[in-house]
Fold this protein.
Amino acid sequence: MRKIALFLVILTVSLSSAAAQETYLFAERDTCSLYMDVFRPSEGSVTTFEGHPKPTVLFVFGGGFISGQRTNSFTRQWFQRLNDNGYTLVTIDYRLGMKGVKVGKGIKGIKEAGDRFFLSQQVGVEDLFSAISFLDQNKEELGIDPSNLVVAGSSAGAIIAQAAEYDILRGHTEGLPEGFQFKGIMAFAGGIISVSGEPRYPSAPCPVLMLHGTADQAVAYHKLSAGGRGIWGSDFLAAQWAKKGYKGYCIYRFKDRTHDVAAYMNYLWDLEQAFLEKNVILGVARTVDATVDDPSLPSWGQVSMDSIYHR
């Protein structure tokens, strides 16, 4: 294999699981090397649902395109939950296109930096596609079926995930296996960045789970745009899909919640499990549009674009 022999280290064995973490080099760029971690299902967990194999979940971390890690102690808790429920979890690096970039405040800043935000998104998509290509080239050795893949993302990672699906629907599939399509997307506070006006879907996306705070000031819940540049969030995308009559997407709107929702992966397992089992594994065209008002969910304070890029 190119493949696996290039870089394979069996790293940490979790204290709560016999499942080992594997780390692979999947791409070399001019500025960095990109790695993925693979976390296998826990021993004794059930890896099928009603006779169907459970998908692999590929996670793309968040951090405003300026920071973040593919694996940390916080996300590892969620990875463990997926492993305990019979899912393989893959988490990847991507290049941070906004790192070191100065962004002006408010709408003016978004307009001036729009091209750079878009580039950061697309660089992330390119790296995601490279990771998928690596999985495809090494599917026998890895024991991972790239045709049964759900991509999940938080914040910037959710933006990359949704932009990747949008690109696939428009035929921008360079670097992907022929005919590739995601089995599903789970987007925690995501959206799509565009420099040419609002996204216009040519056809229905794969099953999508969107979770977003209605008071999010970091990744716009509806949209934040100026001069055709901006970001179009979960509320906007769901409205467009509803207007077009698309089915099979689920949006949960967290009333008065901020960007906290980007970190709710391990708090919303019941919603994720229902989506994975019904929409993805069984292929039910289940559509949900719900508002959630749950004071028990944690709050870590408001995060805005200004606070991210002007620290």
